[in-house]
């Protein structure tokens, strides 16, 4: 058995003792729901960076082209409903609230709503699977700040489930989608009487982040270095991708790679590479690839960066290069994904408790409580962003 230290609230593996939670909060990024929302939304996303509205208007065109509406809010409503159904089917009486980082409903409003409804101990599930500042630590900061700003600090207890990049509920939908994509690309090539399996490349795509953020991702060893070979963010994606490739017999012998997308920010700041479009150009120039399966491995749902960066830009690049292409689906509301989220909720609850922690890669199940130096934000001048309320706390405040 793991030994829990009551002073810290978690064991040597970073696992918290089960608790009697009385509500669930689904936390996400948020997005505009009309043309008039686009610039205010982008101001929220870029708050503190001093970016003028003229520049924001330039980057707003992805949303403008879709009526000013990001699909992410509708997808979160669907995910919330699917989680409620799965919880109900298991006889688990936990209401699900939903809050966003950058657009209504905001996380602070959601925590206040949960408190006003009589809830005092909530467990948060986020729509980010991997470890880095923006996909894990920043959510913990958001929750901590929201507790302070609403005056709920010390009144409402908020914890967060582990990062789930290697949970089978997240990985298995990608296995299905990649296999589907491989069959589809082979069909396209057969119709064109072109080379089949030997000329197909699997591209696993994720959001690029500054290399400084990648290097700071994950827990630190005693000397301050990463606990992974390379950075944790990339290592987690590579491990998930390898598991997917190993799980598809028809993919045996095919080449695959991890590529990045959706880069933003100052051009002089290094971000993770290669960009997916540059990688596609390189494959075409080599002349050994006739088709690609693009797997949006870094994303939970088909939000704007999937619809624009992959379905629009990357697919246009494939068409220009004469490459047969298929974009695999994201987990979305896949039954295995929804069941996996509820399984992770049950890992943390007293009632309906699941003792074992499922993981499909060589990386063990992630921590419930991240280490104090995990996924810090490195500022442009090389300094660390100061700790925000709740980011490094354990029991009684955000995890």
End-to-end C-alpha gap: 22 Å
- The CATH architecture term of the largest domain is 3-Layer(aba) Sandwich
What's the tally of helices? 12
Q: Quick check: average pLDDT? A: 90
Total number of β-strand segments?
A: 8
Largest beta sheet: strand ordering: 2-1-3-4
Count the domains: 2
Give the SSE string: EHHHHEHEHEHEHHEHEHEH
Overall helicity: 25-40%
Radius of gyration: 21 Å
Which fold does the CATH topology of the largest domain refer to?
A: Rossmann fold
Q: What fraction of the residues are assigned to beta strands by DSSP?
A: 5-15%
Global outline: globular
Please write the CATH class name of the largest domain. Alpha Beta
The largest sheet is: 4 strands, parallel
By helix and strand content, what is the structural category? Answer: alpha/beta
List segments where confidence is low: pLDDT < 50 over at least 5 consecutive residues.
1-7, 388-399
What would you say this structure looks like, in words?
By secondary structure, the chain is of the alpha/beta class. 38% of the residues lie in helices and 11% in strands. The strands form 2 sheets. A 4-stranded parallel β-sheet has the order 2-1-3-4, sandwiched between helices. It has a 4-stranded parallel β-sheet with strand order 6-5-7-8, sandwiched between helices. Strand 7 (291-295), helix 11 and strand 8 (324-327) form a beta-alpha-beta unit.
């Amino acid at each position: 058995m793991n030994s829990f230290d009551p002073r810290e609230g978690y064991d040597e593996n970073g696992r918290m003792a089960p608790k009697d939670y009385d509500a669930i909060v689904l936390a996400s990024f948020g997005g505009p729901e009309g043309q008039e929302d686009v610039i205010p939304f982008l101001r929220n996303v870029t708050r503190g960076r001093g970016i003028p509205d003229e520049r924001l208007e330039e980057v707003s065109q992805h949303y403008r082209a879709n009526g000013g509406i990001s699909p992410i809010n509708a997808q979160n409503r669907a995910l919330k409903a699917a989680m409620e159904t799965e919880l109900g089917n298991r006889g688990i009486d936990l209401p699900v609230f939903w809050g966003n980082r950058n657009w209504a409903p905001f996380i602070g409003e959601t925590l206040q709503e949960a408190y006003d409804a009589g809830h005092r101990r909530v467990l948060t599930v986020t729509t980010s699977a991997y470890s880095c500042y923006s996909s894990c630590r920043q959510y913990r900061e958001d929750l901590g700040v929201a507790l302070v700003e609403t005056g709920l600090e010390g009144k409402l207890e908020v914890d967060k489930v582990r990062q789930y990049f290697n949970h089978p509920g997240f990985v298995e939908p990608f296995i299905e989608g990649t296999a589907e994509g491989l069959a589809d690309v082979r069909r396209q090539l057969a119709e064109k009487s072109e080379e089949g399996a030997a000329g197909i490349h699997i591209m696993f795509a994720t959001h690029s982040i500054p290399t400084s953020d990648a290097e700071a991702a994950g827990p630190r060893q005693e000397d301050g270095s990463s606990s992974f070979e390379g950075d944790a963010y990339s290592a987690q994606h590579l491990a998930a991708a390898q598991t997917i490739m190993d799980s598809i017999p028809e993919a045996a012998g095919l080449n695959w790679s991890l590529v990045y997308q959706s880069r933003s920010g100052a051009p002089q700041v290094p971000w993770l590479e290669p960009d997916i479009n540059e990688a596609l150009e390189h494959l075409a120039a080599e002349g050994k690839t006739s088709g690609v399966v693009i797997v949006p491995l870094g994303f939970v749902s088909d939000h704007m960066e999937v619809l624009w960066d992959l379905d629009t830009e990357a697919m246009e690049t494939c068409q220009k290069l004469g490459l047969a292409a298929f974009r695999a689906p994201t987990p979305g509301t896949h039954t295995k994904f929804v069941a996996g989220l509820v399984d992770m909720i049950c890992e943390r609850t007293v009632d309906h408790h699941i003792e074992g922690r499922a993981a499909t890669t060589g990386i063990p199940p992630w921590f419930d409580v991240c280490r104090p130096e995990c996924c810090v934000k490195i500022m442009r001048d090389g300094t660390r962003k100061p700790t925000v309320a709740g980011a490094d706390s354990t029991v009684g405040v955000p995890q």
